[in-house]
Amino acid sequence: MRANRSIPAATVIPVLTYPDVREAVSWLSAAFGFTEQVRIGENHRAQLRFGTGAVIVADQGGDRHAPRPGEVTHAVMVRVEDAHAHCNQARAHGARILMEPTDFEYGERQYKAEDPAGHQWTFSETLADIAPETWGGESITPA
Asked: What is the pTM (predicted TM-score) of this model?
């Protein structure tokens, strides 16, 4: 795949709509630790990075809108080094914590949060490399 400085290098890039792009970028950076990489217009779009992942923050318009109260259309999962510390940082910045950090049999410690626009996020810390078969999953080998 060719590199292009005008788009994040991640293979999958969620695009999330917010009522105010600049406010969202500021909050996502402070609360969740994202870093802004590219700004497109003052309040149109922004590309954010977290580790090797990326997300695009987009403005509302046309058929694009932020989640409505009580509406969950998607969730974004982000891998972090320390779920407890990350959760504390998010909470300090006003994230609504939907699930406290919890250890799961598949080797992950995860917590769930909602940002001020209503987007839901899962943050996951790897505790151990666990074979899916040990907890009821199934490894699929590509043909």
From this structure: 0.88
Q: How many CB atoms lie within 10 A of CB 55?
A: 23
Angle formed at CA 92 by CA 22 and CA 49, multiple of 5 degrees: 45
Alpha-helical (H) ranges within the chain are 21-32, 83-92
Domain that holds residue 98: 15-60+72-134
143 residues of the chain, pLDDT tens digit each: 788 888 888 988 999 999 999 999 999 999 999 999 999 998 899 999 999 999 999 999 999 999 998 888 889 999 999 999 999 999 999 999 999 999 999 999 999 999 999 999 999 999 999 999 999 999 887 65
Residue 125: inside a domain, yes or no?
A: yes
Does 8 reside within a domain?
A: no
- How many structural domains are present in the chain? 1
